[in-house]
Specification:
- There is one protein chain.
- The protein has one domain: Nuclear Transport Factor 2, Chain: A.
- It contains five helices and five strands, in the order αααααβββββ.
- The protein has a five-stranded antiparallel beta sheet with strand order 1-2-3-4-5.
- The chain is of the alpha+beta class.
- Helix content is about 40%, strand content about 30%.
Length: about 150
């Protein structure tokens, strides 16, 4: 019998053929992600996700509008997934936001468009619109707050 030890190849020698291309693909993906502007969109969505006060206060203003409540019924609170599904754009050093999210009421669905500025540690709304598309006979835009 031969009692010689079998020498194992190092981890790198055994796995370089798959490890190198995987690392290259990850690196290229990261570079494309940040150079395409998607990094900014992701940052805006994360900030909107954390700042629920923006949407809760706007929704209270919508609930106080008689026409909106007539057409949509009782409006449900905004959940976190709704914010991630929507569109959001922060500008002016994160002091101005433009956003669109969906809202649901007991009688229908709509989109809420928000434009607001952060002033004195609270959101000052410049515009809040509710856009109803379906059913077609209810299709309209309700201006809750209009730009001055």
């Amino acid at each position: 019998m031969n009692n010689e030890l079998i020498e194992q190849k190092s981890w790198w020698k055994r796995n370089w053929k798959w490890f190198t291309p995987v690392c290259a693909i990850i690196l290229i993906t990261v570079i494309i992600f940040f150079s395409s502007g998607m990094g900014g969109i992701t940052t805006d969505l994360a900030q909107a996700y954390a700042d629920t006060e923006l949407y809760e206060n706007a929704l209270e203003k919508v609930r106080s509008d008689q026409k909106a409540t007539e057409l949509l019924g009782e409006i449900a609170p905004v959940d976190k997934l709704t914010i991630l599904e929507g569109e959001v754009n922060y500008s002016n050093n994160n002091q101005t936001v433009n956003s669109t999210i969906r809202i649901k009421g007991t009688k229908g669905k709509a989109r809420m468009d928000i434009s607001a500025d952060w002033e004195n540690n609270k959101w000052n709304y410049k515009k809040i619109n509710i856009r109803i598309k379906n059913p077609p006979e209810k299709k309209q835009t309700i201006e809750i707050i209009t730009a001055e």
